[in-house]
Design a protein that fits this description.
heterodimer, A: 279 residues, MetI-like fold, 2 domains, 13 helices, 72% helix, B: 317 residues, globular
């Protein structure tokens, strides 16, 4: 209808957006550059933004045998995968039950579940550390898996409840008229419809486990159980600090997260608010 | 009805009896009530075991002088730990620092995040791509963010100071100068979490029905009027939820301090969580640290309750 004209305000908007883009992406680009630079270029003053020699040595170091970061990645994969499976296995049925049945004080229960995620981690970690010390779970992969499962459950339940709410309960009623039990109706009718939602939820749980740092640093002490975040953070303790190795490790650490986040971008609003906000 | 539909039914009942018993009968013990309980119980058990039980234990420890390293047993000290913490001047300094950080970071994130969402919502094309770009910082682990920025803010070879120097703006000691360390924390937190506010604000902005603007245009409303009377009131409740999330996270901030400044210089960037950590893992005053933590939980619970009440009032309007 209207002829699009060039307005000064539009130009201003473009400039502002461009500034935002540079500010948001520069640190990431800089880290990638650092990971690819030779040692002397990394510490070059003034900083070299464009002209530097590209080397893949730092990335090779990350995966060198016996490197603490490599074993960190291995542990992170084990802990992330298993805790996600447990959280999903426990969380999906619970979410279904909360969605379908009249449960006493349902809203209070759900709110209580979510509120456990808002406790300061440093407060929880003290008694957990003491508890794990008695149970011999300090510096063990099993301990971390259990903790991360519990840590991801509130999110899984809230997120999945939203997905279950979207599947009409009448489908199950119809199945039960055909002779299915309630459980069979859940398993054979609703469950297949929930698969995409479960996949999205699991991806978020995986990202949360993968990124978790505070519990990991206090509950692991060596490469037997240490996940990637504390392993990468520990590199700062070396003198002199090998920033090339840190940057390369961080890059390897970040790429899967960004890929996974891209896959679930449709559900990001619900995902990052732990399932509390849905469009 | 036609014959073709009716003919098979004459034989069906017999064969049905032979194939399967009615499915419901096989799981009769699974009434809705027990199915519900059975499905919720495992999840609840895990949450109670690893979130609530530790909290109760911390509550118990907070009344003792227990130390995680001492061999001697602990003694019941009543409310002494609480009294010590609430009367110690350093607690209030840390609380003040935490509030300053929280207010600074959340205000900046809200203003910038909303502005960014507004700019994106006005673009017709490339919204998806823009949003994806801006979401990168938010998905990064605090470790990665902390290390990124620690490297970039370094005084000797950090890229930020290198740029500032070539512009003739001096080389501030971001992480090692008093007052500036807290500013750096605010800056980095803002960098990482502005996209969070943006994402939620954008969800709110795109949900505002177009006909409202069209109606306003018929009345020749100004851009400012449309923004003030249509956009803002409809996005505000959602924005408040986003602010709540960020405020709680800011209140319990630990990881960024741990990596970026280590609480320094001279404790000028020690948030409450960091102080608890120092008491628990350096001072080995486990009992006192627990009391400290419990107080934090109480404060955040009460504050959240008030906030949610306010939020519900707004939503009802």
């Amino acid at each position: 209808m209207a002829v699009r004209r060039f307005k000064p305000s539009t130009a201003l908007e473009f400039v502002l957006l461009a500034i935002f883009i540079v500010a948001m992406l520069f640190p990431v680009v800089w880290m990638l550059e650092t990971a690819l630079k030779e040692q002397r270029d990394i510490f070059h003053v003034p900083a070299k933004v464009f002209h530097f020699h590209v080397t893949l040595q730092h990335f090779k170091d990350v995966f060198a045998s016996g490197s603490s970061v490599a074993s960190g990645f291995r542990n992170s994969i084990i802990v992330g995968a298993l805790s996600t499976i447990i959280a999903t296995g426990f969380g999906v049925p619970a979410a279904w039950a909360y969605s379908r049945f009249d449960i006493k004080a349902k809203q209070d229960q759900l709110f209580f579940i979510l509120s456990t995620r808002f406790m300061p981690p440093i407060v929880v970690v003290i008694p957990i550390f003491l508890m794990y010390r008695d149970l011999n779970l300090v510096n063990s992969v099993v301990g971390l898996i259990l903790l991360y499962s519990a840590f991801n459950l509130p999110f899984t339940i809230w997120m999945m409840k939203g997905f279950v709410d979207e599947v009409p309960g009448e489908y199950e009623d119809a199945a039960m008229l055909d002779g299915y039990s309630r459980f069979q109706a859940f398993w054979k009718v609703t469950m297949p419809l929930l698969i995409p939602g479960i996949a999205a939820t699991a991806v978020f749980a995986l990202i949360f486990s993968w990124n978790e740092f505070v519990f990991a640093i206090f509950l692991t002490s060596n490469s037997a159980a240490r996940t990637a975040p504390p392993a990468i953070a520990a590199l700062v303790g070396d003198a002199p600090i090998d920033w090339g190795l840190i940057a390369a490790s961080a890059m390897v650490f970040v790429v899967p997260v960004l890929l996974f986040a891209f896959l679930v971008r449709k559900h990001l609003v619900a995902g990052v608010t732990l399932g509390a906000v849905r469009r | 009805m036609t014959d073709t539909l009716q003919t098979p039914t004459s034989q069906a009942p017999e064969s049905r009896k032979l194939v399967t018993p009615p499915a419901a009968a096989r799981y009769r013990f699974l009434t809705d009530k027990w199915l519900g309980r059975g499905f919720i119980a495992p999840a609840m058990a895990l949450i109670l075991l690893l979130s609530i039980f530790p909290l109760v234990w911390a509550l118990y420890l907070s009344f003792t002088n227990y130390s995680a390293t001492a061999d001697v047993g602990s003694k019941w000290v009543g409310f002494n730990n609480y009294k010590d913490i609430l009367t110690s001047g350093s607690t209030w300094t840390h609380a003040q620092l935490t509030v300053m950080f929280g207010v600074g970071a959340v205000v900046l994130e809200t203003v910038l995040g909303f502005a960014l969402a507004f700019l994106i919502s006005r673009r017709r094309r490339g919204r998806g791509a823009l949003t994806t770009i801006f979401l990168v910082p938010m998905m990064l682990s605090p470790v990665v963010v902390g290390l990124f920025w620690r490297f970039m803010l370094d005084v000797q070879f950090g890229v930020i100071d290198s740029f500032l120097h070539s512009l003739g703006l001096g080389q501030p000691q971001w992480l090692t100068q008093k007052n500036l360390a807290l500013v750096s924390l605010i800056m980095v937190d803002t960098w990482q979490w502005t996209p969070f506010i943006m994402l939620i604000a954008l969800a709110g902005l795109t949900a505002v029905p177009k006909y409202l603007y069209e109606a306003a245009e018929i009345d020749r409303a100004s851009e400012w009027f449309k923004f003030r009377r249509i956009t803002l009131p409809l996005v505000w409740p959602l924005l408040l939820v986003a602010i709540l999330f960020r405020a709680i996270e800011a209140f319990r901030l630990f990881d960024l301090v741990y990596i970026l400044t280590g609480g320094g210089p001279g404790g000028t960037s020690e948030t409450l969580s960091y102080d608890v950590y120092k008491k628990a893992f350096y001072g080995f005053e486990t009992g006192k640290a627990s009391a400290y933590g419990i107080l934090m939980v109480i404060v955040v619970t009460i504050a959240t309750q008030f906030y949610l009440r306010y939020l519900n009032k707004i939503k009802e309007r």
